[in-house]
Every structure is written in C-alpha cells, then in structure tokens.
Amino acid sequence: MNKFPLPGIFCNYDLFQKSLMLIKEAVQDERNDELFYDYLINVSPNEEAKNIIESIRNDERRHNQIFRIIYKNFTGQEIESVDEPFQKPSSYLDGIKKALKGELSAVVKYRQIKEGLPLGCYQDQVFNILTDELRHASLYNYLITMTKC
Q: Where are the chain's structural domains?
C-alpha cells in the first residue's frame, strides 16, 4: 500500500508502532537527563554556565510533558517513569561532554519518532523538540569551549 500520505493518515503502521515505543524511551531519557542536568547546575563554574544548563533542563522537562501527551493521545495510556540511579561524572567537563553526546543521540531518536507519526501537529511538535536538542548541543559545545579556555 504505497499511497501518498494525507494529513492525519499514517504512512506506515510499523513505523508508527516504533515511534510509540521510542516515545516511551524518550520520556525516560528526558527524565534521566533532567536529573543529570540538576547535578551539572550544582557544579557549574559560573553563573553563565548555570543559567545555560538550567534553560536546557527546563526544556527537557517540557519535552517530557509533550511526549507524554502525544503518547496518551494515541494510546489512552500514561507512561510510567522509573528513576534510575544517577551516575556522577568524574568532572564537570566530562559531564558536559556526556550531555553533548546525549543531545546528539536524542536527535537521531527523535527523527525516528517523527518519521512514524502522522503528518501535522504531532510531527511539528517533535520537530520543535528536535531543533531544541540541536540548540542544546550547540550550547554544550559553547560550555566545553568556555571551560577549556
């Protein structure tokens, strides 16, 4: 069945199911990131770094809620999160590097989520989250550069 997709119509049921599975993972990832960023905020070397990481953490909280809403709209079910044990990085710089890699990994996952959702507002919301993650990666690159200088 290779018809052109219409707004609100799924292109591929298997991709849609994969998107739902990845949304559940994304909710957990966003929650873990939030806890990790709380730690980075507390060990930030200056106010500028602290403010940048706080803004990223706040975006992650918003992403978590958006993904929860999308999942519930399609399934009627809530996503249960589990707080996983926090692993403290060996240094602030190592934490920032880990955060950068996490943001870039999220971009890959969110592209897959977007691909399986119907056209329209859901894809738009995921695209907005995806661009936030790219912005976060740029900010973490800035913090790495600032720390090394």
A: 13-76+88-148
Neighbours of 143 (CB within 10 A): 25
Note whether 99 and 36 are within 8 A (CB). Answer: yes
Cα–Cα distance, 116 to 41 (Å, whole number): 35
| Contact (CB, 8 A) for 75 and 20 | yes
Q: Does the pTM of the predicted model rise above 0.85?
A: yes
Q: Which fold has domain 13-76+88-148?
A: Ferritin (1.20.1260)
Lowest mean pLDDT among 8-12, 27-31, 39-43, 57-61: 8-12
Token pair, residue 148, equals: 């090394």
- Cβ–Cβ under 8 Å, residues 144 and 44: no
